[in-house]
Each structure stands twice: as C-alpha cells, then as structure tokens.
Records
---
Amino acid sequence: MMNDLVNHTAHQTRLDLGHRDCQILIASRSTSAVDSLQQVLAPLPKTKIKSQVMVNGHTDPLDGLERMPDLLVVRLDTNWEVELEALNARPATQRPPMIIVSAESDPQVMRHSMQAGARDFFVEPFDPEEVLRSVEHLSREVQDNPANQDARITVVMNAKGGSGASLIASNVAHALVQECDESVALVDLDLQFGSLSYYLDLNLKHGIKEALDNVDDLDAIALDGYLVKHDSGLRVMGVEEGRMILNDEVSSERLRHLIALMARAHHHVVIDVPRQIDLITSTVLEMADQVVIVTQQSITHLRDTARLMDVLRDDLEIPNEHLDVVVNRYQKNAMITRTEIENALKQRSLICIPNDFKNVSESLNDGIPLLDIARRAPISKAMMDLCEVVKGNKDTEENTVLGRLFAKLKGA
Ligand SMILES: Nc1ncnc2c1ncn2[C@@H]1O[C@H](COP(=O)(O)OP(=O)(O)OP(=O)(O)O)[C@@H](O)[C@H]1O
Ligand SMILES: [Mg+2]
C-alpha cells in the first residue's frame, strides 16, 4: 500500500510535512521473541512499536491490522514457509519494508525472505546492535520519504446542530488549497443530509458509497476517481447525488482504510461529521490529528460544548491538545463574551468566526466559497486564521504569551 501511493495525482507535489513517528510492527509466533525484539528496538527515537503474536491458524503477519505499519520486523521459526507465502500473497505495494529475523539457519529461509522483499535478514542468535542499526536505517529511510508522510486529519464537528460545522469545514478546506497551496481532500460524512456538494456547487457523480465498496482495490490514482474536483483544486468526497447511506451500511474498517488512503495522498484531510457519537464518527475521531468543535455564543451551546469535550476526552481518549473550539457567528457585544467562553471551557485558543449574514447567504446560495466572494471580509480572514490552526501552527494571537497577556488586560 505504501509505494503505490508515491505517485499520487493530488493537486500538487506533496511538501515535506515534517517527520511523524515511524510505526514499526514486530510479528512472530513466539511471545518471548516479540518481547526480546521489542527490547532491542526500544532505544529507537521517533518510533511507535506494536507487536502481533500470531496464534493458532493465523499465518499472515499483517492480518487484521487497522493500519499498515511503516516497517515490519518478522521473526520466523519452523512455520517460516507459510508465513512468507502469506506475505508474498499480498501485492508488493501492500507490504511495508520488512526485516526478517529467523530462528532457522536453513539457507532456504534467507532465499525465500529475499524473494518476499526482505530488506535485511538476521539469524538467531543475532547481534542486537546490528538489528537495531538495520531497523534504524530503514525507519529513517521511511521517514525521509515525503510520500510516506500522512496528511493531517481534521474532523469538524458541531457542539450543537446548525452551529456552522459544514460552512467552516468547506471554507477552511478551500482556504487551505487557495491560500496555502496544499492538496486537500474534504469528506462529507453526513451520510444522510450532507450539504458540502451544494456549498461548493458540485455534482457528486461518484462518491463514498462506491469508494467504500471498492476500497480494497484502491490506490491513490484510483481513489482520485471518486473525489470530485472543485475549480480551486480541492477534492471532495461525499454520498453520491440522490443517494442516502444508513450508518449500519458502513463498515468502520473500510472507512478507516479509505481515510488512511486519502491521508497518504494529500496534505490535509478535512472531515465534516454529523453531531453524534457512533461507529462512523468515532472511527474518524480516533484517526484525527485535530478535532475542531464548532459552537456559538449561548448558554445551551456552551453546555453542549463542555459535554461534547468531556465525551471526546474521557470516552474516546482524545488528548485535550487535539481539541480546538471555534465560536461561530461571533459578535463582540453578545451577552456571553469570549473570555467567559474561554473560562467556561478552560480553552485559551478559541477561534472566532464573525457573524456575516450577507456573505454567508450569498456563498451558500450560489455555491461559491467565502474567499471567492469576499476575500477581504473579516469572515474570510477568520477562515484563513483557522487554516493556521488546522495546519498545526497554533500560534494564533491568543496562543502566544503576549496574546494571553493582552487578553488578560482586556478583561479576561
Ligand atoms: N458565520 C456565519 N454567519 C452567518 N450565518 C451563518 C454563519 N455560519 C453559519 N451560518 C448560517 O447557519 C446555517 C447552518 O450552517 P451549516 O450548514 O454550516 O450548519 P451545520 O452546523 O453544518 O448544520 P447541521 O447541524 O445541520 O449539519 C447556514 O445556512 C447559514 O445560514
Ligand atoms: Mg452540517
């Protein structure tokens, strides 16, 4: 799956997004072998090590994984032939780079391992230093390959229905393409009443239903066929025109696979989700680098926002720093001030999107993004500020030491 995504057809060549942790999977039939390899690899920086102990009839070291690792370390023993066969049965593009450790010294194991694409081979007893160096070398290679650096995944969710999540998801995704020249996929996961195609005046001939049905055969190039292109270069995926999908028609595993595929081919994946916690939304919430919670200035909005944040933190275990609150339709002279919202939610990095009936109505009625309608309007500027947060640059004015000081002096 990794290499076929190198030559994606996204809006532009992907830029270096900075290194993310290299995900290493250690697979073996033997728990003690997994443990000792885990100890050997423990000193590696910027890596996340997972393990898979193959039991009973399981022979494929990559079987049942939610997400393909960046690098695979397989420890083979008497069952080596079947395990290598299982790996070989996967298309080369759906196997991560692999290092083999063998308990068998039979030269056939090495020959077959190399045929299966192993990048290095060790026989037990091995020199731990050598294995460590080899894995480190390969993980650096993986991390240095820009094609292996996944997109940032941003999920936009309302704290209360109608707060503006769809307007914000579509406009921030558009602004990322337009202003930052990034390749962006926008996904409408409101499978019954999605509105993004109207907001961007697009006809979704192909979409998420077909993409989910075919996800096992998709690579980045085929995936692009299910994304509808906006004039700006933004790619959009939603339910096909005139269709409606029921939640239980969607397998979370397929959805996870589809979003991971999109993340491999773009700089950003922005997902508009309905306001509910179910299998679909929790699947993408767990994958998100960032969750943008959209609320407004009222007591009921604030109560629902606090509740949603508790659920995301406590039940879905999303770290607090992955949560950002956007106050939409913000008005300076409203009853509830920005400071009161910050204090109530214990959030210092609120982003406020002004209320702008005229430009928003025009944008939504004509299906034209705000930046194209009124690029100098405060609402468009606020969308651009939100882009910085979505990009992971949280140095908004409110977030700097000086910004916080000013906010305090202003009466926070
Ligand atoms: N900043 C704003 N200024 C003025 N009006 C706005 C603003 N944001 C949203 N609206 C109004 O709110 C309506 C709902 O917006 P949107 O479709 O983004 O909501 P939503 O939160 O996605 O709704 P749902 O919960 O149904 O998915 C829009 O039709 C628009 O009229
Ligand atoms: Mg919506």
---
Amino acid sequence: MSVPCKVLITAATGNVGPHAARHLLEAGVSVRALVVKDDPNIGRLPAGVELVEGDLGDPGSIDAALDGIKGVFWMWPFFTLGTETALDVLQKIEKQASRLVLVSSVGVHIGLEPRDNNCHAYLEGLIEDHTSDLEWTFLRTTGFMANALGFAPQVRNGGVVHFPYGAAARTSVHEGDLAAVGVRALTSDGHAGKRYLVTGPELLTQEEQLHIIGEEIGRELTWEDVHADAAREQMVAAGWPPDYADGALDYFKRLTGEPEVGSDVVREVTGKPARTFRDWARERADAFR
Ligand SMILES: NC(=O)c1ccc[n+]([C@@H]2O[C@H](COP(=O)([O-])OP(=O)(O)OC[C@H]3O[C@@H](n4cnc5c(N)ncnc54)[C@H](OP(=O)(O)O)[C@@H]3O)[C@@H](O)[C@H]2O)c1
C-alpha cells in the first residue's frame, strides 16, 4: 500500500494533534485538520495545515473534511457517545481512506476497559468488527505527560499540589512521541493490524514528576495526597461520567502497588528514544511559572 498523500487529523487542536500535524508535514504528507467552529486553539497547529470545520459528534457534518482523504489519525474526544455515531463516522472514513491510526489506551491493553463502557475499547471493537479493507493500527497509550498540566494552576499558586495517589507509578508518554509513532504507522508499511503499547521510557510516581517540574522551574513543590472522593467530585463536575472517574481513580490506586506497564515501542517504531519526563518538563516549564 502506498503512503497516503492526504491525512485527516481529528481532535486536531488537543495535546497530540499539533505534533501529529508537524510530523506529517515533515514526511511530505498533506494535512487536513477537522476543527470545530470557532475553535480557540487553532493557533496550536503549524502553518500549512488545511482547516475544515465539522463536528465529530454529528457524522453528517464531516463529509467535506473526509473528501479526498487517504489516511486518518483518529482521536475521539468523548468519554461516551451514542454507539451509532462512532460507527457512522467509521463507515464514512472507510469509504475514503486506506489507513487509519486510532489513539486508544493502555486500559484496553491490560484488559481493564470493557467494551460496553469505554470509548477506546469500544472503538477498537468497531474497527475490528466493521472494517474490511482499512489498514488499521491501534496506539494503546499510557497517560500523556501533558496531563501534568492539570497541576499547573496549583504549582503557580503556592506550589502545593493536592491530588490522590502521589505514589502511583506511571510510564507517562510524551505526546509528541505518541504522535510520531502514529505518523510512522500511517506513512510506512508493516504496521497494519498492530496494537502498539506506547509508553514513556521510565517509571515515575506522580510525586516524582512534580519534583522534576520543581527542579526545572527552580522551586520546591509539595505533593499532598487527598482522598479520592475529593478528586472524583471535581472530575464529575468537569464532565467526567461518574463510572469513568471511578475507573481512572481505581487505576491510580492500583498503580501505587503495581507499577504501570512499559514498552520500547517509541524507539522500535520511530528509531528515536522516547523522551523523558524531564525533557517534557523543560519544554513546558513556562506553563508552571
Ligand atoms: N490524556 C491521556 O492521558 C490519554 C490517555 C489515553 C488515551 N487518550 C486519548 O488521546 C486522545 C487525544 O487526546 P488530546 O488530549 O490530544 O485531545 P482531546 O482532549 O481528546 O481532544 C481535544 C480536541 O478535540 C476537539 N473536539 C472536541 N469536541 C469535538 C467535536 N465534537 N468535534 C470535533 N472536534 C472536537 C477539541 O476542540 P477544541 O479545541 O475546540 O476544544 C480539541 O481539538 C483522546 O481523545 C483520548 O482518546 C488520552
């Protein structure tokens, strides 16, 4: 199969999409981004990306974005959505594209996410069961290093971070490395049908991540564990379905006693070592100052 000459990125202005766009442009591929109307984050995308408006939750609105597309970097920015919506989107994708990369989750890899209540497991199942000619690759990623940006307001306002399970040990991945793996899967052969576990290169507790941020900005930062219920309340208020918040917090609890899985997929697929959390914290230090 030849390299797709035009790739659509969905959820393009989040943490991963701008990196994916850069890697694709560097590989000589035309990039189109599906963006919502009046998206305030369009400035994150590099110059040269074609912008087409559409709402992923309304499959009828994405036809123009898919027109002429040969590859899709598929991200699904919803916790849950009516099952028929994702299937409609997938069927529209298969009519146009020959390759698809799905950003999935480590939770599927370790069997924690049942198909019926999680978007990633559900989407993987849809692709497996409802496509025939599409060459697909799943990126079962651990949490993004960018998730630490959630601590930035507390770091800026006093330097004490209140969150549960500081001892949870994670193999968080640099979102740029995740994007690079996905772009390789779209632009080179040998990745069809692969379910890649994509992780960072090291195991660090949440508290250790915070201390690294502190070292990079030259301030001592403190972690204070709070009860999971406090975080749950905030997550639900921020729009997380309660079951999903419980699942995430249970997973953090599990990681206090059982470290997260790791892999060398970033190096194997891209030929470059995965970036460390310190690399990430240095790049993003200004967000914490
Ligand atoms: N964070 C993690 O640790 C983690 C772990 C495992 C898997 N994942 C997966 O990684 C994916 C990518 O994450 P991310 O942080 O880069 O992005 P994200 O937060 O999932 O998505 C944000 C993007 O989606 C856009 N968007 C929101 N609603 C939309 C709609 N109805 N139609 C079209 N676009 C819409 C947003 O536009 P606006 O800018 O206008 O809001 C923004 O560009 C996630 O979707 C998730 O499935 C994440």
